[in-house]
Specification:
Number of helices of chain A: 9
Oligomer: heterodimer
Low-confidence stretches of chain B: none
Largest interface: A-B, 49 and 35 residues
Largest sheet of chain A: none
Structural class of chain A: mainly alpha
Strand content of chain B: under 5%
Number of domains of chain B: 2
Mean pLDDT of chain A: 81
Number of strands of chain A: 0
Order of helices and strands of chain A: HHHHHHHHH
Mean pLDDT of chain B: 80
CATH superfamily of the largest domain in chain A: RNA polymerase sigma factor, region 2, helix turn helix motif
CATH class of the largest domain in chain A: Mainly Alpha
Structural class of chain B: mainly alpha
Low-confidence stretches of chain A: 92-112
Shape of chain A: elongated
CATH architecture of the largest domain in chain A: Orthogonal Bundle
């Protein structure tokens, strides 16, 4: 497996820590998107993504290079976000976070088109893994094989999940639109 | 999708992904034109695809990279035994338990002995009276040692093997 980023990794392992900033810059948006899809909260997602980058840096030597660096990194991001999510479930939401989220949500609703809003509502009915899997699928940056590596699932499981999630979204959208039509 | 069959669901997705053969596509399009339910579901799926394909990437804050770089040297150092040493320690304890159990089963410790205090140098030198001999149940002592070693093995398994292993999995999960 050859990846143009392996050269950068070699330089980082050789002790050139500043080169890592280049890798962070390249992958931060996808890493943040993955964490955000799992955690649904910007500040938590940012923290989880940062934590994942730090973990990846300290384990660079154990990266086996049989996959792309990005796939390995996004798997760390995904696992970190899932562990944050578990912690999130057991702690109480503080008032500050709730206010910020409400503000973002309110602003978002005003900006979104109706269709987007309904699809977002439908997305909220999916579990976090399905939500992430279908988001990565539609980002078109990732193959089903890469999504499987990131999430630690079998390719066939990913296929089935994407398939079901698409149908479920379409279903939810139909139901939401019907409800909306009834209220008009 | 409650009103359509599993086959129709699969065909809908395949149709959207352009994965049907020309004859399958033609057949499905005929089916589609005759079924308002299928048309409705296809429209919903198309909407989902259109919106999700156009969903932009999320971006973190501007100082994200700087914060990562600042955090690189603050990574917590793991305490305790490394996993490899923990496994070696566990193997050592288990071997000790195994040897002791084998010797016990072989009857090496069956003969009960006693410690005769009169044979000790102290007795002649400092104590003129005759001292009693103390019976020693070697088998019982070895059994207690084995039990303590088994307890130690569980402790080592928990603290030096499983805990570091799960910690490592949580950190990386690779």
């Amino acid at each position: 497996m050859t990846d143009p980023e392996f050269e950068l990794i070699d330089r980082i392992i050789a002790g050139n820590q500043t080169v890592y900033a280049e890798l962070v810059d390249r992958h931060k948006s996808y890493a943040f998107t993955i964490a955000y899809k799992v955690l649904e909260n910007r500040s938590d997602a940012e923290e989880a993504a940062q934590d994942a980058f730090v973990k990846a840096y300290h384990h660079l030597k154990s990266f086996k290079r049989d996959a792309k660096f990005s796939t390995w990194l996004y798997r760390i991001v995904f696992n970190t976000a899932v562990s944050y999510k578990r912690k999130q479930k057991v702690k109480f939401q503080d008032i500050e976070t709730t206010v910020v989220e409400y503000g973002q949500e309110a602003e978002g609703i005003l900006e979104r088109s109706d269709k987007k809003k309904y699809i977002q509502q439908a997305m909220n009915k999916l579990n976090e893994v399905d939500k992430l899997v279908i988001s990565l699928f539609y980002l078109e940056e990732f193959s089903l094989e890469e999504i499987a590596e990131i999430t630690g699932m079998l390719v066939n499981t990913v296929k089935v999940r994407v398939h079901r999630a698409r149908l479920r979204l379409a279903d939810e959208l139909t139901i939401l639109l019907k409800k909306e039509a009834l209220t008009l | 999708m409650k009103n359509i069959s599993k086959q129709q669901e699969d065909n809908l997705i395949a149709y959207l992904d352009d994965a049907l053969s020309p004859s399958e596509k033609e057949h499905f399009e005929q089916e589609l034109s005759a079924s308002p339910v299928l048309q409705q579901q296809l429209a919903a799926l198309q909407n989902v695809t259109r919106v999700l394909k156009n969903t932009p990437l999320e971006h973190p804050s501007k100082n994200f990279t700087q914060r990562v770089m600042n955090g690189l040297n603050q990574y917590p150092v793991r305490s305790g035994l490394p996993l490899k040493n923990g496994i070696l320690l566990l193997i050592g304890v288990m071997i000790a338990v195994g040897i002791a159990s084998f010797l016990l089963a072989a009857g090496v410790f069956d003969a009960s002995g006693s410690i005769d205090l009169n044979n000790m140098v102290l007795q002649n030198k400092y104590i003129p009276e005759s001292l009693p001999s103390i019976p020693v149940n070697t088998k019982l002592i070895i059994n207690i040692i084995i039990m303590l070693n088994i307890a130690l093995a569980f402790l080592v398994l928990d603290r030096a093997v499983l805990k570091p292993w799960f910690e490592r999995r949580t950190r990386m999960n690779l």
